Structures are given as structure tokens and as C-alpha cells.
């Protein structure tokens, strides 16, 4: 049956219900587009035949192929759209710099889209709260205190805090840091929030 | 609780589909027993058993819901759609007697979704089908709710095993409400945690390395 | 909503404290605070009360309803009535947790209060489930949830809304021709 490849794309995303981004299936997309091209060309010639030679019995077949074209179109559009939803989520979970292995899963247009999204979000945040701007990706939960205790889960190198002091984030070291500086690193799994 | 930034397009539920919903696309991929009321010239290769170049009139074949919906017309019959067995009278009686004993996952997994979509095909039994799926949902609701609200910190796979896709969604929502409240009560709500997306990526990477 | 956000809102409720320091009136966007005089009771938002308490700058006066006898009455009434009874504070659950965790020494019969509030909560949640079930079985078109608090609604919001939505959609199936025709 037609459209099997297209639904494979959807299944692949559906299996990762938590929002992970699988590698962009360039090859499958190409195959779907090829199928669509073939369907379109067959329909073109059948439409001509039906018109010129009055072969109205071809109409159900034309309609059949047309449904398949629309189905393929829907699957590809939904695939691309759902991936954009996932890519947008990455900006909130990882911050503005994505790890290489995730960027590797995106196609050129998606990378471009991510950069544009990043930019418009940054422009929006700069427009908030006076001259300083406001980082709305911070404080996803209401803060209880300005400083929190954190433990390093891996070596992360040097890290500068507000007052200019530089601290070394070494595996298993423990620090008392401004909460807003750590939130991103905790989300990325570099630091762990310690509750006494 | 983990704040999920990825929110997929929800399914339409009922007669309508959501164009971009992955769930609705998979639902509309469910196969229905059909009979062609017209020939489809030059498409014979789609039918494995046929040796003619055409799909002949009166051929019995399974078609995905999306195709049946696309081809179906009230005025000019191109094909007729048979009811899958779980929507026929026999099974409707079983559901009517005790909706809780049925394994809707095995029957479906989109029992309510597919049942609603079938109503597009003007069957004389439509009113009974619509009534049967509504009553099944109502009859099973209490159990879905109770199991989702009572299970805390335990393996829930046995609880969801026999639930339809929609019921599973409800189950997860009930669980997440319960879990985040319990977390808060135990003083864990202010705890900042790694994004579940990040941890799952890491798990997958480890799995890939081990393969 | 995350429960921590509900708790955050609860911290805006006011509570009486007896400070042990002096400070002139403080002018803030959210309203003026103080003046503070040692030994003189003053109303402040809960977040400030807890902060001062942690730094041993004050004693917290528990809200009037946070009293074992009063709560016992509420519990009995809640168990007797089929509907939700009016509760003395829209944030009773959060305030109980906050005040008992940080200022138990200022609250008489703290342990008893903890149990009573938990009993009231459990009774109300059980009622909430019972009414959710009857909404569905009786195929109600709309739900009225009087006297429920934000935290209570919050634990069941998505579940309740979606279960009613699914019921509504499946019920609309009964009216043929109500669905718009779609081309996909």
C-alpha cells in the first residue's frame, strides 16, 4: 500500500513520547517525496486520458491516488511540525547552546530555525524589565532562597559568579551558589541540587 | 514533577481529527474491512491476491481509515465499509453487560477513537455504536480514575495494560497530579532537578554504546 | 500548575507576628510593611513571617482557624455533609504545611493540627472523586465546584477537564451531522 514510508516517520517520533529528537530521516523523506512525485505524474497522465478519451472509469483511481498524495503530505507536515515543537523545547531544557550530538540530529533548515527562535526569544527577553532585560527561562519554580547548595556531577571547568570570583567546578565538589546561576547547569545535569 | 516543555499536538477525539496530531495519524492508519463498489483500474498491484491489472468491483480488501474516509461518498458509492467485530452487535452486548472485563488495548488500542470515526460511514447501526462507546467509557471511568489516583510509587504497567489509548492519557494525567502533590507534601517541590529530556538522552546514549 | 506555585501564592496571605526588633515602615510595591516594634503584634505576608522566624526575629501567631478544637468541628462537618463545606482559609493546606514546618514551636498542639488537616484534606479529595464519577455517569454538561481550594483543584485539574471533554465528545457522537466534515 502507498504511504507506508510516511507513517514510519510518524511512528518513529511517536515512540519517543518524552520529546527526544531522533535523527532527521532525510532518506525516508526523500522516498516519500519520490512516491508523491510518481503518484502525481500517474494522475496527470490519467487525468489527460480521462479527459481526452472520455475514460471516466479512471476517476476512482485518480481519486485513490489523490487521497494518497494528501496523506503523504499530512504525514510529512506533521513530522516536520512535531520536530519543531521538540526543537523549541530544547531551547528551554538545554539553553541556547545545544550539545553537538543533538545538533547532529537536526537538518540544516532546523538548525536555522533554532537559531531564529533563539534570537527572537532573546530579543523578547531583552525588551522586558527595563535596561537589564529579564531571563524568563530562569526560576521555572518559585525560588525559596537566593543561594542554594549544589554538588558537581562532572568536571565543568571554571565558572564565574556575579561578584567576579571564579570557582572551579570539579567532580564531587560542593558549592553554595546563587540559584539563578545554577539553574541551567542543574537542568543540564552538570550540577545537583542538594537539600539539607 | 518535571516541567515538560515539549507539548505534542493533542488528538481531536470523536468525529474530528487534528491534522498535526501524531496520535490521530496513527489512529487513521487502523485498517477497516471494505468492499469496493467500483473498479479501480491500474491499481491491481496493491492487492496481493489479485492477478488482474485492476482492482475489480466487489473486491474485499482492508483499507486504512484515512483512505476509506477519503474515498467514501454518500451520493456515489465507491466502497462500503464493514464494521470491525468489536463494534458489531455481539460485542456491543458484551460491553453492555460489563465494560470493565474487556481488554480495550487488545481490541483497539484506539477503541473510542476508531468507533467515533466509523460514524462517518452512514451505517444503519450508527446510533447503537455511538451509544455503546459512550456507555463503555462511562462504565469504565470509575476504575480508570481510582487506579490512577491510588497507585503511588508502584509499577503501573499492570494497571494500564487493558486501557484504551484515551484512558491511558487520563491515567497518566491522574498520576501526574497525584505525584506532584505528594512530592510537594514531602517537601520535594522546591527541588531543582535535571531535565528528564537530558537524562533520557544520556540513557539512550549509554544504551547505544552497549549495543 | 505545579504545587510549588500554589504554595508561592499562599505565601501572600497575611499572618500576625510578634517581632523582637524595631524597624520603621518599609515601602514595597506589594504594599507597606511595619512599623515593627518589639512585643507589638503586626500583620505581614507569610513569606516575610517565615523569613523572620528562621532568623529568630519574631514569634508567629497562628491564624484563628489553626486550632485543634475548631479543626475538629470542621472535620466532623466535612464528614457529615455530602457537599464541600466552606473552609476557613483558601490556602489551608499550604499554610498548615508552611507554618508547622517552620514555626511548630509557636503553634499549640501542632501534631494534632497536622493530623486534623490531613483528615479534612482526605475527606474532601474523596468527595471530589465521587463527584467526578457522578459527573461522568450522569453525563453532566457542566460542573460547579463550590468551596474548593486552589490546591485541591490543582491536583485533579487536567484529569477532570480531560475526562469531561472526552465524555462530551463521545456524547456529541450521538447527534449525527454534528461533526464538521474534514478532508483528511
Your description of this structure?
Chain C: Belongs to the GINS2/PSF2 family. Chain C: It comes from Denticeps clupeoides (denticle herring). Chain C: Component of the GINS complex. Chain C: Residues 2-61 form the DNA replication complex GINS protein PSF2 N-terminal domain. The complex is a heterotrimer of chains A (196), B (211) and C (184). With 196 residues, chain A is mainly alpha-helical. Helices cover 55% and strands 12% of the residues of chain A. Chain A has helices at residues 4-15, 26-53, 59-94, 100-103, 108-126, 179-187, and strands spanning 147-152, 157-160, 166-169, 174-178, 191-194. Chain A is elongated and about 85 Å long. The mean pLDDT of chain A is 92. Chain B has nine helices and three strands. Chain B is globular, with a radius of gyration of 22 Å. The two termini of chain B are 31 Å apart. Chain C contains six helices and five strands, in the order αββββαβαααα. Chain C is elongated and about 75 Å long. Chain C is 51% helix and 11% strand. By secondary structure, chain C is mainly alpha-helical. Chains in contact: A-B, A-C, B-C. The interface between A and B is large, with 56 and 46 residues.
- Mean pLDDT across residues of chain A: 92
Average pLDDT of chain C works out at 91
Poorly predicted residue ranges of chain A: none
Which class of secondary structure composition applies to the elements of chain C?
Answer: mainly alpha
Number of strands of chain A: 5
Name the helicity range of chain A.
55-70%
End-to-end separation of chain A = 60 Å
**Major sheet of chain C:** 3 strands, antiparallel
Across the major sheet of chain A, the strand order is 4-1-5
Poorly predicted ranges of chain C:
none
How many individual helices of chain C? Answer: 6
Give the SSE layout.
The complex is a heterotrimer of chains A (196), B (211) and C (184).
Chain A: H1 4-15, H2 26-53, H3 59-94, H4 100-103, H5 108-126, E1 147-152, E2 157-160, E3 166-169, E4 174-178, H6 179-187, E5 191-194
Antiparallel strand pairs in A: 1-4, 1-5, 2-3
Helix pairs in contact in A: 1-2, 1-3, 2-3, 3-5
Chain B: H1 22-27, E1 31-36, E2 60-64, H2 65-71, E3 79-81, H3 89-97, H4 104-107, H5 111-118, H6 126-150, H7 157-160, H8 165-185, H9 196-210
Antiparallel strand pairs in B: 1-2, 1-3
Helix pairs in contact in B: 5-6, 6-8
Chain C: H1 3-10, E1 14-19, E2 26-28, E3 31-33, E4 42-45, H2 46-54, E5 58-61, H3 68-80, H4 92-103, H5 110-137, H6 150-172
Antiparallel strand pairs in C: 1-4, 1-5, 2-3
Helix pairs in contact in C: 2-4, 3-5, 4-5, 5-6
Amino acid at each position: 500500500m502507498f504511504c507506508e514510508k510516511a507513517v514510519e516517520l510518524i511512528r518513529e517520533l511517536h515512540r519517543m513520547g518524552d520529546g527526544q529528537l531522533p535523527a532527521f530521516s532525510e532518506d525516508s523523506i526523500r522516498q516519500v517525496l519520490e512516491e508523491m512525485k510518481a503518484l502525481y505524474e500517474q494522475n496527470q497522465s490519467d487525468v489527460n486520458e480521462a479527459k481526452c478519451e472520455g475514460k471516466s472509469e479512471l476517476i476512482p483511481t485518480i481519486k485513490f491516488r489523490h487521497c494518497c498524495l494528501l496523506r503523504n503530505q499530512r504525514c510529512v507536515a506533521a513530522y516536520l511540525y512535531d520536530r519543531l515543537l521538540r526543537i523549541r523545547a530544547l531551547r528551554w531544557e538545554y539553553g541556547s547552546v545545544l550539545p553537538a550530538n543533538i545538533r547532529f540530529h537536526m537538518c540544516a533548515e532546523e538548525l536555522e530555525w533554532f537559531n531564529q527562535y533563539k534570537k527572537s526569544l532573546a530579543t523578547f527577553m531583552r525588551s522586558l524589565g527595563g535596561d537589564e532585560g529579564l531571563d524568563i527561562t530562569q526560576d521555572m519554580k518559585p525560588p525559596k532562597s537566593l543561594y542554594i547548595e549544589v554538588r558537581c556531577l562532572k568536571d565543568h571547568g571554571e565558572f564565574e559568579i556575579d561578584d567576579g570570583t571564579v570557582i572551579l567546578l570539579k567532580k564531587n565538589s560542593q558549592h553554595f551558589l546563587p540559584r539563578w546561576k545554577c539553574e541551567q547547569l542543574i537542568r543540564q545535569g552538570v550540577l545537583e541540587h542538594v537539600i539539607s | 514533577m518535571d516541567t515538560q516543555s515539549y507539548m505534542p499536538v493533542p488528538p481531536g477525539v470523536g468525529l474530528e481529527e487534528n491534522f498535526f496530531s501524531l496520535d490521530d495519524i496513527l489512529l487513521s492508519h487502523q485498517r477497516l474491512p471494505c468492499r469496493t463498489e467500483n473498479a479501480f483500474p491500474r491499481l491491481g498491484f496493491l492487492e496481493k491476491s489479485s492477478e488482474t491489472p485492476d482492482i475489480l468491483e466487489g473486491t474485499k480488501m482492508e483499507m486504512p481509515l484515512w483512505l476509506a474516509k477519503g474515498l467514501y461518498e454518500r451520493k456515489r458509492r465507491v466502497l462500503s465499509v464493514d464494521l470491525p467485530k468489536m463494534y458489531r452487535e455481539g460485542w456491543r452486548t458484551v460491553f453492555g453487560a460489563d465494560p470493565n472485563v474487556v481488554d480495550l488495548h487488545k481490541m483497539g488500542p484506539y477503541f473510542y477513537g476508531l468507533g467515533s470515526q466509523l460514524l462517518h460511514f452512514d451505517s444503519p447501526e450508527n446510533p447503537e455504536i455511538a451509544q455503546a462507546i459512550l456507555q463503555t467509557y462511562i462504565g469504565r471511568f470509575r476504575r480508570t480514575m481510582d487506579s490512577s489516583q491510588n497507585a503511588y510509587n508502584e509499577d503501573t504497567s499492570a494497571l494500564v495494560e487493558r486501557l484504551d489509548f484515551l484512558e491511558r492519557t487520563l491515567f497518566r494525567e491522574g498520576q501526574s497530579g497525584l505525584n506532584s502533590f505528594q512530592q510537594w507534601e514531602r517537601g520535594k517541590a522546591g527541588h531543582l532537578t535535571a531535565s528528564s529530556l537530558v537524562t533520557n538522552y544520556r540513557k539512550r546514549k549509554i544504551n547505544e554504546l552497549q549495543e | 500548575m505545579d504545587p510549588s506555585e500554589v504554595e508561592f501564592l499562599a505565601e501572600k496571605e497575611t499572618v500576625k507576628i510578634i517581632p523582637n526588633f524595631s524597624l520603621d515602615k518599609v515601602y514595597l510595591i506589594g504594599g507597606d510593611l511595619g512599623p515593627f516594634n518589639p512585643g507589638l503584634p503586626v500583620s505581614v505576608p507569610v513569606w516575610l513571617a517565615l523569613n523572620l522566624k528562621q532568623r529568630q526575629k519574631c514569634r508567629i501567631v497562628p491564624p484563628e482557624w489553626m486550632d485543634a478544637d475548631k479543626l475538629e468541628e470542621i472535620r466532623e462537618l466535612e464528614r457529615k455533609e455530602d457537599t464541600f463545606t466552606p473552609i476557613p482559609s483558601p490556602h489551608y493546606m499550604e499554610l498548615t504545611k508552611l507554618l508547622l514546618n517552620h514555626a511548630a514551636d509557636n503553634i499549640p498542639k501542632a501534631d494534632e493540627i497536622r493530623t486534623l488537616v490531613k483528615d479534612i484534606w482526605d475527606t474532601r479529595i474523596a468527595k471530589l472523586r465521587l463527584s467526578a464519577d457522578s459527573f461522568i455517569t450522569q453525563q453532566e454538561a457542566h460542573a460547579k465546584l463550590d468551596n474548593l481550594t486552589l490546591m485541591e483543584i490543582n491536583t485533579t485539574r487536567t484529569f477532570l477537564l480531560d475526562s469531561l471533554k472526552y465524555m462530551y465528545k463521545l456524547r456529541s457522537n450521538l447527534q449525527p451531522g454534528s461533526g464538521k466534515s474534514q478532508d483528511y
